[in-house]
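Input.
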Amino acid sequence: MAEITTKHILENLTHAEVPVATASIEYPLVTGLNKKAAKRINTFYEHQATALLQHVKKRLMPQIIKEYSHSLATSSLFKPLEISATFTHAQQDENILNISRDVHIRGTSKHTTETWDTISGWFAK
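Output.
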């Protein structure tokens, strides 16, 4: 039976030493399976977490910095962006594991679910 713990990335992103965004990303670490299956599943989620953080840094930060600069120029309030990703899991039986993820950025949420074969470490059909 799979055992799941939580890995966490917390990064405060700054511009000119001012906090402009916080990324809080949780992702699962699966143990209790054969090594190949656990490695496949864990690599998938670690990659998803790091890809989200890179998306924030490369794609969203330029817009956030623009908004911050505009707020300085207009003396308006700037609220740092908060990005969060969380997961939940359910073991359907000994060989099937469901992991759901929710990503929240700027009031928009995206929900995804993966179903895993815990023997092979591949997506279940």
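The mean pLDDT is 95.
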